[in-house]
Write a structure and sequence with these properties.
The chain has 319 residues and is of the alpha/beta class. It is built from eleven helices and 15 strands. The two termini are 36 Å apart.
Length: 319
């Protein structure tokens, strides 16, 4: 099958993934997403460009590296911080401060950081390079596994995702596409022959609330879900439950009713309880996490939500 060896930006490839579709899978995470979900647990996925990350625990101190990162910054965005105790000891160490207002993400400081305390979130690659990496895991894909392409939003780098999926499908590999659904319908139509299962996100059924929570309205997302269902696509719906934001009984019921509308195309509805696992990633990027006052949904509430979906005849589970 002909394909183009186009270039793309990704930020991770994770093997032995067991939560991104059926079986044992390897997941490719692309950079760039048109949504800005308030609860996003992968902020490094949002921007297509590469960004500077900072892991405080890895910094050995500017004395040992002779201010390499500070000297490498052409914008003067890095400076030597006041002494602090090294983790687990009484030894004082001077680390760095990053002035994010001055930082242009030129990433020159990361190039000279010997411990990778300063690091680059993401890298440029090609279809062939990713394919070669994925082939190292092909032995794990037996018994129903495969490859999942996720993001960010994988459709935001359509040419890269499309050509990668074409090459993988030529190998007979089961393919999942993890998507927000926010992409031109024509692109979903073009990529359909190469996708076995869509991991399809639904955030809120009211478009005004959806835009407040994610930055975009939901009409295109719902339209694309209907299109895929009507044209033979298999959907695994993913619905994150965020207390006080989208967990009203009205929205839960409306989401379930929409899933019923899609008919047999819906193979599973996954209810995803909100978690705070990604908060540390915001600190590494110098961003502010916006849902500091939102608590996790209780087990009782998740069970009630599950019973609502199952009671309406949907194949649902808490994920």
């Amino acid at each position: 099958m002909e394909y183009e060896n186009v270039r793309g930006h990704i930020y991770d490839i994770q093997g032995y993934a067991v939560h991104d579709g059926p079986g044992i899978r390897t997941t490719v995470y692309t950079k760039g997403c048109p949504l800005r979900c308030l609860w996003c647990h992968s902020p490094e996925s949002q921007q297509h460009r590469f960004q500077l990350g900072w892991l405080d625990l890895k910094c050995i101190g500017t004395e040992l590296c002779q201010n390499a990162c500070v000297n490498a910054c052409p914008e003067g965005a890095l400076s030597v911080a006041e002494p602090t105790k090294r983790t687990g000891t009484e030894e004082l160490v001077r680390k760095v401060n990053i002035d994010r207002a001055k930082c242009t993400d030129c990433l020159k400081c990361a190039e000279v950081c010997v411990t990778k305390a300063l690091y680059v979130s993401g890298w440029e690659t090609t279809v062939d390079e990713v394919y070669d990496r994925l082939m190292k895991d092909v032995g794990f894909f037996e018994n129903g596994g495969g490859v999942t392409v996720s993001g960010g939003e994988a459709m935001a780098q359509f040419d890269f995702t499309y050509n990668l999926l074409k090459r993988l499908k030529d190998k007979g590999i089961h393919i999942c596409l993890d998507t927000t659904g926010f992409a031109p319908t024509a692109q979903f139509e073009k990529i359909m022959p190469y996708v076995d299962l869509y991991l399809y996100d639904l955030k809120h059924m009211d478009t005004r609330h959806h835009e407040k929570l994610t930055g975009v309205p939901n009409e295109l997302i719902l339209e694309n879900a209907r299109f895929l269902a009507a044209h033979g696509g298999a959907l695994q719906i993913r619905f994150p439950i965020i207390p006080k934001l989208n967990d009203s009984v009205e929205n839960l019921r409306a989401t379930a009713e929409f899933c019923l509308e899609l008919g047999d195309a819906v193979k599973l509805v996954q209810l995803l309880p909100y978690h705070k696992a990604g908060r540390g990633k915001y600190e590494r990027l110098g961003w502010k996490y916006r849902l500091t006052n939102v608590e996790l949904p209780s087990e009782d509430f998740m069970q009630q939500a599950l019973e609502l979906f199952q009671g309406m005849g949907l194949p649902a589970q808490i994920h």
